[in-house]
Each structure stands twice: as structure tokens, then as C-alpha cells.
Specification:
Length: about 260
Amino acid sequence: MLDLGRKSFENTTFSLQHKREPDRYKCELFRGHILAYLWGKVVLIDTGSERSYGNFTTHLWGKIDLPRTIFGGISLDSLEKFLNFKVDALLGNDYLSNVDWAINLEKGEFTIYSSKAHVQNVDIEVPVKDYFGVPVVPLNVDGKNCEAIFDTGAPISYFSPSLVEGLTPTRFARDFFPLIGSFGTPIFKKSVAIGQASFNIEVGTLPKKLSLLLSTFADKQILGNEVVQHFEIVFSGRGRDRNLLLKRLQGDQEEQL
């Protein structure tokens, strides 16, 4: 879920070098959202949110208490109202961009690495840009190269109307954005590719009000968390050296539209 706030921990010194083995935690896709279970807490993993918040004290980067409310009055209470289930915190890109981590839904694992992640037999590795505090990756749609915000908090991907023009919706769905509330969208099937790794996803189109609110991202598509149903994903490196690694899940069948 995209969030327009500013980084809350940009002056924090992050250090995990004293640890050697990666930490592995249970995770699952629940009602379209990636949940990790950290120290008995239910945590939503959301790269589309620039800031983390919730009823949670993290020891990942030293003891830091997360705020309960952030920019625009977004709070844990308002988040739970839209989710319709309880979580203890949302872990956003202010933390996630400062550590190597991975999600493998086949194993049900959320992994935090103590140093640079080393993953064998990776299918694709692409660079990750930081754009207003959220990760942007290269994406190919209909043979056209574009950029997409990789939002693990989004159950649905969102494309410009021109990219779904002429397609017939397969269904209609409800989604939400914390600053405007719930909204509806037609859903279309699209085949996309990251590098040479192609896969099918469901995409919607944003309502005009939300498009205006997110005008800063007008030239970007939004790639939701359906990616993790096709691949193990690994974020590795920092800053300009950050990369997204994709390793196709064993149970995934590549099928083109």
C-alpha cells in the first residue's frame, strides 16, 4: 500500500554485522496480504509504504518503537478497519530497504539476512531504484519497457488505462487506500515480464481521485504481491547497489496468455 509520508528512521544507524546465520520466520499470504510472524507478532510486509507503524518494538536494528500513527492520520486502527483482521504492525520500506531479506511462500518463510544475501540458482536479477522511498523495478508489458513500484502490500497490481485498453474485465474487485478508503476496480489479466521471467497477473486501474493523489507516480505502474506466488523474491544490497532476485517456485507453471 503506497504511503506519501517521509522516512521516519533516516538518521538511524543500521547494523546486523554481529549476526551470522539468517533469521527465518513463518510467513503466509492471508486474504491477499503477506503476513510474517515475528517474535509472536503479526506483521504486514509492505514495501509500498515508505514508513513502518504499529504496536510493535523491533530489535532488528536496535530497539526502536514504531509509531502508531503516521502521515495523514494513517494508523494501525484504520489499517485494521480496511483489512478486516488484526495485525500488530506494518513493516515498511524504511526498515526493509536497509537489510537483505527474502520471501518464499512455498516454504512459508520470511528471511532476514545478517549480511549480503547469497541465493543459488537465481533466475533473474534486476536493479532496484529508490523512488520517493519505495522500490521501483523494470517491467515489460506488451513488449514495452516501463517502471513499476513493487508494492508487496498490494493484493492487486495497477496499470495505466492505456495498457488495458480493449481488454474485457474478468471480474470486479474491491481494494482500499488508507487516505481515501475503499474503492472498486475492474480486473484484467495481463502477461508481464521482469527481465526474461514472464508470468501472468491480475491488474486493475486506479480511480481518478487516487490517480490525482498519486500524481508523483504517474509514469509508474504498480506491481503488487502476486509476484510472490510465482517466485521466491530476494532484496539484496543497499542504495544504488540494491537488486531484486527472482527464483521461480517449483510449483509454479509458466503459462502465457
